[in-house]
Write a structure and sequence with these properties.
Blueprint lengths: L4 E4 L6 E3 L1 E8 L10 E2 L11 E9 L11 H7 L10 E3 L2 E2 L4 E3 L12 E6 L2 E6 L3 E2 L4 E2 L3 E3 L1 E8 L9 E2 L11 E9 L30 E4 L4 E3 L7 E2 L4 E2 L11 E3 L2 E3 L6 H24 L2
Parallel strand pairs: 3-5, 14-16
Antiparallel strand pairs: 1-2, 1-17, 2-13, 3-4, 5-6, 6-11, 7-10, 8-22, 9-10, 12-13, 14-15, 16-17, 18-21, 19-20
Length: 290
């Protein structure tokens, strides 16, 4: 889902800052009184894919979707302060975005694109569900796992990245602090041999964070058992090319999003500049290590 969620690193482990979403509910039966309302959207200050839910109970005679911006709702009603803290993984998407299943076997869960509001305008988001409160610090910071992106010395990626936690782990949130790991002898490297953080030793030890200050939002959806190539030889730090295979460890998949057009040309330019800068940072980091 990309890297749009800012991370604080003053206290380790790194944690993700949160956005806010306002949910209008009818006071009598607590049913939904309109689409969610985001406080901010991508490319604007304070945006994060992780959102803290603020519930507002409105009059029963309020028309559905009467409130389409956070300011007007907050002016007329007070937030519910008694409910437990709830944080959701709700990344805002461009209009026309869709999810497709690119895995070899059917994925049990492919996210739906839903509608919401921001400052009176319709926006779209993907619902990846609740982030467990056991993975939330201080009520509004979300914990991160680690992701290693594998590169050749030339700067080209080599196979799939490696995650240290996935959806079957208790500490999983879907957000990852990203590192670069160089494949020194990529000519002898068997693609997708490195599949565990335990394999990232010696010349493959993850290096400094390679993509600035944003976390990678990469919610996994299921694990598929696949043939596993023999691991690195610990004495020579080279990959053992072997025909022997097992079924461990699993390969995790995530839904692939096809991004639609941006909401405005100004937003498109801003996001495009950010994407270019991230790419430059990654390339600069790789070249500086050689």
């Amino acid at each position: 889902m990309g890297q749009k969620s800012p991370v604080q690193t003053s206290v380790l482990p790194p944690t993700v800052f949160t956005n806010a979403v306002l949910i209008p509910l009818y006071a009598s039966n607590k049913s939904v009184a309109g689409d969610p309302i985001f406080e901010t959207i991508p490319c604007l200050a304070g945006y994060s894919d992780a959102v803290v839910v603020h519930r507002y109970y409105v009059s029963d005679i309020t028309p559905y979707n009467q409130f389409t911006d956070a300011v007007s709702l907050a002016k007329q009603y007070l937030p519910d302060t008694l409910s437990p803290v709830q944080i959701l993984n709700w990344p805002v998407l461009n209009p026309g975005s869709t999810f497709t299943d690119t895995s070899p076997n059917p994925t049990p869960y492919v996210p739906k694109v839903k509608t919401a509001w921001f400052a009176g305008s319709l926006v779209y988001f993907a619902d990846f569900g609740n982030i467990s409160n056991t993975n939330v610090f201080n009520g509004n910071l979300v914990s991160t796992g680690n992701a290693a992106m594998l590169f050749q010395s030339s700067g080209f990626s080599v196979g799939a990245g490696v995650l240290d936690v996935v959806d079957v782990d208790a500490v999983y949130t879907g957000f990852y602090y990203t590192y670069a790991s160089m494949i020194a002898d990529s000519s002898n490297y068997v693609i997708n041999t490195l599949r565990s953080f335990d394999d990232l030793v010696g010349p493959y030890t993850p290096q400094a964070q390679s993509v600035g200050t944003n976390a990678l939002n990469c919610p996994t959806t299921f694990a598929e058992r696949v043939p596993y190539v023999a691991p690195i030889d610990s004495t020579t730090s080279t990959v053992t090319k072997s025909t022997t295979t097992t079924t461990e460890p699993p390969l995790f998949h995530f839904a692939n999003v096809k991004t639609g057009s941006s909401t405005s040309s100004a937003e498109a330019r801003t996001c495009g500049i950010q994407a270019t800068m991230i790419a430059i940072l990654i390339l600069s980091f790789i070249l500086s290590t050689n």
